[in-house]
Amino acid sequence: GENVEQHPSTLSVQEGDSAVIKCTYSDSASNYFPWYKQELGKRPQLIIDIRSNVGEKKDQRIAVTLNKTAKHFSLHITETQPEDSAVYFCAATMDSNYQLIWGAGTKLIIKP
Amino acid sequence: GAVVSQHPSWVICKSGTSVKIECRSLDFQATTMFWYRQFPKQSLMLMATSNEGSKATYEQGVEKDKFLINHASLTLSTLTVTSAHPEDSSFYICSAKQGAGWGYTFGSGTRLTVV
Description:
The structure holds 2 protein chains of 2 kinds.
Chain A: E1 4-7, E2 10-14, E3 19-25, E4 32-38, E5 45-51, E6 56-59, E7 62-67, E8 72-77, E9 86-92, E10 101-102, E11 106-111
Parallel strand pairs in A: 2-11
Antiparallel strand pairs in A: 1-3, 3-8, 4-5, 4-9, 6-7, 7-8, 9-10, 9-11
Chain B: E1 4-7, E2 10-13, E3 19-25, E4 32-38, E5 45-51, E6 57-58, E7 67-73, E8 76-81, E9 90-97, E10 104-106, E11 110-114
Parallel strand pairs in B: 2-11
Antiparallel strand pairs in B: 1-3, 3-8, 4-5, 4-9, 5-6, 7-8, 9-10, 9-11
């Protein structure tokens, strides 16, 4: 079955700098890759997603890139702000079962 | 937008008792409901997938007789933790999907503490 690995587990960056979180997946049939932000005790919130027919997607300070050949995708956050501090999860799924397979999560710390 | 109401938000129960968690889709029909468990500082772990009117499909290692899932209607799915034990203490989250295509709506989660 699908397996998603996420790195790093913790990322500390200075406010205003960029943050990059990387994920790899194992099943080439996966075709949808969302990224979620989760604050402590809250539900995951979708921040950006990408489908397998697209290589890059951007929404203001957030972007996601996908390399289907290498089976990895990355989250890029520019001009980080204190409110970006949270745990970020990547996930992968396919339209045969729509089950999200989650990465282990990255705790992002924005230092003032 | 789509909303899933999950109740209760937190519950404390005694060991050996059962607890029911409800997830209700308020403005759409949830054809598929995913139930997750999340331990502190860990990722979401899929417990089971249920389709309206069908028996739930449980992930390996999840006891179907302990975690009873009912998805009898397109707007309501329930998870009952039977004979709860302290090791069942966790954050339980549901996620609803409407028909085909991408788009998952998460409930707000239930913090279960078994004492």
